[in-house]
Amino acid sequence: MNFLPIQLFDSESSTYTYILAADGEAVLIDPVDKHCERDLAHLERLGLRLAYVLETHNHADHVTSAGRLRQLTGAKTAAPSGCGIAPAEVQLNHGDVLRFDASEEIHVIHTPGHTAGSVCYLWRGNLFSGDTLLIDGCGRTDFQSGSAEALYHSVTERLFTLPEPTMLWPAHDYKGRSVSTIGWEKRNNSRLSSRSLEDFVQLMNNLNLPPPRLMDVAVPANRNLGLPH
């Protein structure tokens, strides 16, 4: 089977969901509740058993389908240990390695900043960056224990030090872009490239963004993997 990530999109929240497919098993990253059947249909067509459902952080703009996918497929759920998603069977920390389909490895990189617990996943030269690093941008840092200083260090010390050809797959994009590379972002990212820590913190602290529309619903729901309490 082709080992390229399969990228799926939710138009309401501009969220990307990813299927990582190996010979007989798959992993889903950041699924959205309303697309549970769509995602299962992809797996069925490809003849894949779902091994894990991964979250990059506790999302504030959509509700996850991780809990429902676990119920329907028997997959394990995994979430960053610092995000308060207690029902996930696997609580992830920096340096952890998830294995599926016998020989496939996903490396966990803790990247606090957007939220205190945010992580990115590295698989076969592909970085799934959540809201930490976006294409020509980054996630906001003004809620859920966010920190502009922490995000700057996460990106410059843990992501920009990856090989430049590493493919960057974000959790969101609002301009129709699907993929970038670490090298391009290092040279061109308008928020982070060639910007000092002090300048970045000042920029992020003055964005004055409105709160996500679904935040009051999504954050508590996602702490329970999207399932009713």
Automatic annotation (TrEMBL):
| SMART domains the record matches | Lactamase_B (SM00849)
Give every Metallo-beta-lactamase domain span. Answer: 14-172
For this protein, the parts annotated as crossing the membrane are none
Provide this UniProt record's keywords sorted from A to Z. Metal-binding
Q: What SUPFAM superfamilies does the record point to?
A: Metallo-hydrolase/oxidoreductase
InterPro entries recorded: Metallo-B-lactamas (IPR001279), Mito_Persulfide_Diox (IPR051682), POD-like_MBL-fold (IPR044528), RibonucZ/Hydroxyglut_hydro (IPR036866)
Q: Which domain of life is it from?
A: Bacteria
Which is an annotated Pfam family here?
Answer: Lactamase_B
**Matches recorded under PANTHER family:** PERSULFIDE DIOXYGENASE ETHE1, PERSULFIDE DIOXYGENASE ETHE1, MITOCHONDRIAL
This one is known as MBL fold metallo-hydrolase
Instruction: Name its species.
Output: Herbaspirillum robiniae
